[in-house]
Amino acid sequence: MSKRPETDGSDHTDRPKRGQSGRRLLPIRLNAGAVWGLAAALFLVLEIFVAVGAPLLTSYNPLTGDLERRLLAPGSVGHVLGTDQLGRDLLARMLYGARISLVVGVVAVVVAGGVGVLAGLFMAFRGGWLDSVGSRIVDVQLSFPFMALALSIAALLGASLTGIVATLAISSWVLYARLVRGETLMMKHQEFVEAARTLGAPSWRILLRHVLPNVLGPAIALASLEAGRLIVAEASLSFLGYGIQSPIPAWGNMLAEGKNYMARAWWLTVLPGVAISLTCLSTTVLGDWLTEILDPRQR
Fold first, then answer.
1. 105-119 pLDDT, tens per residue?
2. Domain regions of the chain by residue span
3. In angstroms, how far is the first alpha carbon of the chain from the final one?
4. Cα separation of 294 and 35, whole Å?
5. pLDDT tens-digit readout, 232-255
6. What is the pTM for the complete model shown?
7. Which of the four, 18, 69, 220, 266, has the lowest number of CB atoms within 10 Å?
8. Hey, CA dihedral for 149, 152, 154, 156, is it positive or negative?
9. What is the DSSP code (8-state) at residue 31?
């Protein structure tokens, strides 16, 4: 009869202790970057819903004022965030101003990203004179300061919603073109691309089926980072008088209108400034998280 192996009463197997595997997997599933990224995404989603539902959240017209109730402080009866120098409800102008800032940022990012991604793909994949000319155009535009270029374009296109979107898109498409061009140059020599070319796949199919999905992740991460910068750029142009014009509510021109009343009505500049800062911070944090997820080199 064989004897059972003697044990000292303790379990020396290779099984991890209770909770050990959970602690080992937790940083992968829920790290600090993911927590802040999700929080930023939720904040932006909430901001979008608030902007869309502005008519349901306030009964005031953002363009109509009451001079008898001008410069009321936050917390006044009937005006949660107070009123401005013309007696207009500041909460209503903040909500409707969010529409302008978010629309300008999102549309400008989509237009600039679309043009830049297509330009970068064709420049790198075709090569030759197209790549040389396109690369020189990108280098020349990147040599100009962003705001100086945006101010010049805005002066030509005029101060309107369409003009400001076009200004920001023209000023920022080169960032996507440069990023996608570099990614495409690496992708076009990969084995799966060479195999598709050897099997006789047309160039457009190789671009759409094999190259584009691999360069789209970094482009989306860049777009998230750029959204906040373009919102700040729109506010800066409106503040300088080259963007959205009063009385249309936009966070930038609200700052410009309130700067003369900072000593007696701080809320006219502080509240729009906080809204711009939180939006820019949220898009930056979300962009960093998306870069970590979508760009394999960052993992």
1. 889 999 999 999 999
2. 34-60+76-298
3. 56
4. 16
5. 888 888 888 888 888 888 888 888
6. 0.77
7. 18
8. negative
9. -
